[in-house]
Amino acid sequence: MEKQHSFWEREEWLTPPDLLITGGGIVGASTALFYKEKYPDHDVIIADKGITPEGASTRNAGFSCIGSVSEHLADLEISGEETVFNRIERRWNGLQLLRKTIGDDVMDYENTGGFEIFKDDAIYKTCADKITWFNQKLMDRLGLDDVYSESEYEGYPAIFNRVEGAINSGKLMRNLYERLAKAGVRIWWNCKAERIDSSSVLFESGLEMKPKKTVVAVNGFTQRLEDLPIKPARGFVLVTKPIQDFKWKGTFHYDEGYVYFRNVGDRLLLGGGRNVAKDEETTDQFGTNQKIREYLTQFANDTLKLPENWEIDIEWSGIMGMTENKEPIIQQIKPGVWVAAGLSGMGIAIGMQVAADLVKSLD
Predict the structure, then answer these.
(1) What are the beta bridge partners of residue 314?
(2) Cys-Cys link to 56, which of 37, 45, 186, 318 (CB 3.0-4.6 A)?
(3) CA-to-CA dists, residue 299 to 40, 97, 127, 195, 254, angstroms
């Protein structure tokens, strides 16, 4: 027998909102925050299919970054100079908005600086030869001087990026939701959207809502709801048990940013390796690819030279949403329905900026 909602539920809990946001990650939550600041009297609901924001917002590595030189050079071959530097500028501006909105102390932000390490001398030379050019471009675009510089770390040639940092992603999202609660935003956990039309949203439970406006902010899960050019991409992350005399302090990248690692106290956080099995990792299913796990384990042993007795404490996966050119999709897709997704692995850097841009279009 179909469940019947009560009078009280119908009148107070299930009233159609002014804005319904599907997806409770950094984009969805920030959209709700900025929208309520602009329209404090409007009713807003966030519906997420998990008991925490599923996807990548609380399942990332906690990097505050604009990208490494080798990543930028690879992107230049695909997208061209204007697109790449627009992308860097969006990341930088997004990070400044994030820090201003949340506060450095609240999310344990540290301006650690970041090292890109190299094991191939030829690749290092190619990247190092472009440092002056990149620095001049970033000075012209952003007013930042000497962002990149030649360096070394633990015997490896490296390029240091002075503006990179680290955050606690869990604290970031928890604070964001505390602020949403104070603003009166309604949060529906374990509430999976099955279909979105111009006038209604149907949930897996059978509940149908008729909001005035709907935002699709499910990033890597977008294709479950809308036919848009956003592919899911699974990312793997592990954290070790404490390591005595751990030497790798700060944030680090390797191999065009496909491998990333940092310290969390005296533990190693290590993630990435998706390029080892890219087709297999084009999935929106959580899980561990043993090929990638073995690759990262070997990297920890051979490159980072961890002590023989190191152990993994916890490992997990997150689901990102990738576009062909790494540019997010922010647009109205049908009457009353907007999408903000495809952050391409840079949700921390650009998530709030994407939300702010979206809210401007919701008038």
Answers:
(1) 239
(2) 318
(3) 50, 34, 21, 43, 10
Q: Could you tell me if 94 and 120 are in contact, meaning their C-beta atoms sit under 8 angstroms apart?
A: no
User: What is the CATH T-level fold of the domain 231-322, as seen in this structure?
Assistant: D-Amino Acid Oxidase; Chain A, domain 2 (3.30.9)
Structure tokens at 334: 């049908």
Residue pair 138/121 in contact by the 8 Å Cβ criterion: no
10-residue mean pLDDT series, the chain (363 residues): 84 96 98 98 98 94 97 96 97 98 98 98 98 98 98 98 98 98 98 96 96 98 97 98 97 98 98 97 98 98 97 98 96 97 97 98 90
Phi, psi of 273 (to 5 degrees): 75, 15
CA distances from 123 to 73, 160, 281, 295 (A): 11, 15, 26, 21
C-alpha distances in Å from residue 222, one per residue of 22, 215, 253, 308, 328 = 10, 11, 28, 42, 12
DSSP conformation class of 105: T
Count Cα atoms within 13 angstroms, Cβ side, for 114. 25
User: Which residue type occupies 255?
Assistant: D
Q: Report strand pairing: 312-322 vs 329-334.
A: unpaired
Q: Judging by beta carbons within 10 Å of its beta carbon (0-12, 13-18, 19+), is residue 356 exposed, middle or buried?
A: middle
Is the model's pTM score more than 0.90? yes
Q: What is the architecture, at CATH level 2, of domain 7-59+169-228+325-360?
A: 3-Layer(bba) Sandwich (3.50)
